[in-house]
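1st attempt posting a full record on here, be nice pls
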Amino acid sequence: MKSRVAIACGSAAALVLLLPRLGYADVHAPMHLTWDAPAQCPQQAAVEERMAELTASLAGKLKPSRLRAEGRIESIGERYRLTLVIHDGSAVGTRVIESDSCEDLGGAAAVTLGLLVRVEQTSNARLSDSTLGGVAEQPPRKPASTKPRPRPESPAQPIVDQGHEPTSRSQWDWLLRVPRIGIDVGVFPRPSYGAGLALGLGHQGWRVLLGGTLWLPQSIPVPGFPGFSVETNRASLDLEGRRSWQVGRFEVGPCLIANLDGVVARGSGPGVVSRSRQVVWLSLGLGLGGAWRLQEHTSVTLNVGGRFSTSRPHLVIHSLPEVHRVRPAAVGARVAYQWIF
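the predicted structure (as tokens):
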């Protein structure tokens, strides 16, 4: 008899422990949500779980919601931005929220949508554009302390705004691209390969960088004269100005390019007195640049572009035909690992 009582008590205890887990597994999001966020930020399941907790008091009374929303968190420099587009039939409202923490933005999205569901369920009326784009209800606040506190010099940055556009950041970021690998086609008869680095500044979507590249030496043979050639060593400086637009972890935009090439050349062959000569010329062009944000302070960049030479130096060996003349146009690409400070 005692063993049966023990078995019954153990079964009852297991059932008590299991019931909350079963109920938790049955929680469903109270509205349709489409969510896009970086990997380090709260994902859709976490946001929907929090929404379900906020509407748990309506259990059994919750009717199918007309509301649907699209939420997206994107990185903007050292901060994060949440954009919520909320629909109730033909009514549409947009909320833009910024914070230093993407965890806070996930919670803000869940609270905002959960409160709107509560308003919809209790009012049984369609929500207006202003309600969807504003704040229908405020989450409960902790009671204020009775101790006097000094007034802050500047107001704290809110996590949830009133649906207005965020204020612009005035911070400039230092950008360091190293290593930077490049390929050029058009300067010499064969493609050129080089490596270097670039340093610059970034502000919102603007990028300005100055870079340098050392290219692998090339030997250019004299046409029709075996054994004779011109040995070249090339270095270049390039200035890039770009305006980019960000989409999630990616940014892309057009850029202006100014390139200054310097070549040191000397002749080689039987009876040739080896003397080095230097030549420098300027090229201008257009390109397209982009970046893929890996982490908050690092990304991989890719730039491709074409440029036109303002002059066309030619390489010759005395008493021999012209060896090579720089072509009027060249194209190139640079890929780099970028550090953001």
